Amino acid sequence: MYIFDENDIFHRSPYGAVETPGTLTLQIKLMRGMASNPRVCLYPDGGDKREISMGYDHALGSYDVYKAIISFDLPGLFWYHFLISSSNNTTFSVPELAGSSFQITVYKPESDNPDWIHGGVIYHIFVDRFASDGNPKLAPGAVHRADWGGCPYFLPDERGIVKNNDFFGGNLYGVIEKLPYLEELGVTCIYLSPVFEADSNHKYDTSDFMKVDEAFGGDEALEKLCKKAGKIGIKVILDGVFNHVGSDSLYFNRYGRYDSLGAYQDRHHSPYKDWFTFRDDGTYDAWWGIELLPAVNSNAESYKNFLCNKDGVIAHWMKRGVAGWRLDVVDEIPDVLLDPLCAAMRREDKNVFITGEVWEDASHKIAYSVRRRYFQGGQLHSVTNYPLKDAIICYLIDGDINKLTTTMASLCRNYPENVLNSLMNIIGTHDTMRILTVLSGAHTPDNKPAMSHFKLNDEQISLGKKRLRLAAALQFTLPGVPCVYYGDEAGMEGCIDPFNRICYPWGHEDLELISWYKQLSKIRKENSAFKDGPYTLIEARDGLFAFTRGIGKERVLIAVNASDFDKTINASDFCYDLLQDNNADTQGKNMLEIKASEVGIFRC
Predict the structure, then answer these.
(1) How far apart are CA 552 and CA 69, in angstroms?
(2) Under a CB-based contact definition with an 8 Å cutoff, are residues 77 and 45 in contact?
(3) C or N terminus of the chain, fewer CB within 10 Å?
(4) Residue 491, SS3?
(5) Stretch (H or E) spanning 531
(6) Which residues contact 348 (CB under 8 A, 6 or more apart)?
(7) Is the dihedral of CA 130, 136, 139, 143 positive or negative?
(8) How sure is the predictor about 587, in pLDDT bands with cuts at 50, 70 and 90?
């Protein structure tokens, strides 16, 4: 009775997010004599609906095509569905599922979009476990581990607390020593896990925002890293943890270790008293109820000033060479703080890169009953692309190609173009199981003592590597920027935290995998299609997922075959095999063969 496909540019143009001021053209096909009088029911998020009549445009076979052009002057999130009259004088809705609507993201383009991130490669370093210069400087109470590569401590103490106070000696000077390796790998941006002074090895419990932890080399090490990395075209971004601090911090000072008057010591007179929320019984708001991590009151003007003033935390570190920020749990940072944070970053550097940790589609994210407006102007450039990560895993393990195609379609529809091209394409992070372990298909233990001893066998490693090659190919070629979690390229394995945070295996790397990552980086760097080229799905069937990036002669075809059988694909325009670095073998029939469990990358 009708045809409407929100993924088809005939029916919806532009296909993706709408730039304001701008228009969206919608076209629907109605079977002649069976349906008539189509209307668009449009409403802003949380606002009132309005009906827009669709005018007859032209005939197409047995269908009549109706069109509506909708203008948008302000950014925001909008929803729409169609109301159609049927031949029996009833009215039905499209989508037909009750309560369903299509999404429109309307955005104001950022004038300061950092295009240096597009087409690059991000490398995520968990500092204590990546590389050491052999000169650890640990605070009192920290446990020095002389067994690089050993199993991190994971058992709780007598109070049930996992201290995370064992240090293997990784530091920023170690990162500096490994810059040649990162350059060879094709890295253009280093994303560091938190580096500010804190008790733990992970540093998500900040003690002093104005100091780089001495265990990591102190302020001088960070400045030197930014400078040396910059000389070889690598920028450095920091993990900004601004939603909470450590209970053992300059600001809270629960244990009296600092000379300051912390809020816990005197909630009435401390200069930090407004930063925290205390209850009458002496307890306080903490991140996810973890007493070690007091939650910060984002409404506190003194806290906002501390972070965002011209001599605040943001300015302090950006003046020392930091090129961007990854905002931890950004969905827990309300707009009242996120707006001035992002403004402070932009004030220091118009080319700053601002990304945030979001696990869902961030274009319509609701956090604490508030719809977020990350991409409607003045906030984020990017987010972590967990939806793609999940879709890639489902495709390679379960053969669910539909989830991958629908996820990509949704990302391309919902995200502004510049956001889409700067998404942090992850397949593993410090919060998830190592991707090799995931893709191995192994049944992992459900308790940490067993996890600490768990190792993949040779068969599982072989299967995991085979799938990881495909996962990395998708990570590097789909829209966005690959974000490689340190050691994934070296074949590291491990279950959840802390076993996904073991030391980089220097001298015991999987050189075959590293070579694969280097090859993908080289192809990415040498072909402009991967910087901002449009994504077009070509084929998705029987385990074969094929798409192109770019337009005209700059187009590149990527074909991933996750099945157990060889596949062929029509590729008359693609004559050069980028992986083999020679002319493509089209078998004289303009057909390309993609071997089972392999990938092909071809250019025009």
Answers:
(1) 28
(2) yes
(3) N
(4) coil
(5) helix 529-532
(6) 314, 315, 318, 319
(7) positive
(8) low
**Distance in angstroms (rounded) separating the CA atoms of residues 593 and 604:** 16
- What is the average per-residue pLDDT within 301-315? 98
Please tell me whether residue 420 adopts helix, strand or coil conformation.
helix
Report whether 244 contacts 291 (CB < 8 A): no
pLDDT at 446 over 90: yes
Using an 8 Å Cβ cutoff, are 182 and 138 in contact?
no
Give the containing element (helix H, strand E) for 146.
Answer: none
Question: Can you give the length of the chain in residues?
Answer: 604
What are the strands, taking DSSP E only, across 215-275?
235-240
Averaged pLDDT for residues 220-234: 98
Main-chain dihedrals φ then ψ at residue 22, nearest 5 degrees: -170, 180
* Helices and strands counted in the chain (H then E): 14, 33
Catalytic positions, please?
Answer: 328, 357
CA distance 35 to 29: 10
Residue appearing with tokens 């948008």: 72
**Rounded CA gap, 401 and 474, in Å?**
13
pTM (whole model) above 0.90: yes
Q: What CA–CA distance (Å, rounded) separates 532 from 117? A: 11
Tokens 């009435």 belong to: 268
From residue 556, alpha-carbon distances to 351, 379, 476, 533 in Å are 28, 32, 13, 9
Query: What type of residue sits at position 590?
Result: N
Token output for 149 = 């590569």
For residue 1, give every residue at least 6 positions away whose Cβ sits within 8 Å of its Cβ, in sequence order, or none: 30, 31, 34, 35, 84, 86
> Residue 215 corresponds to which tokens in the numbers above?
């265990």
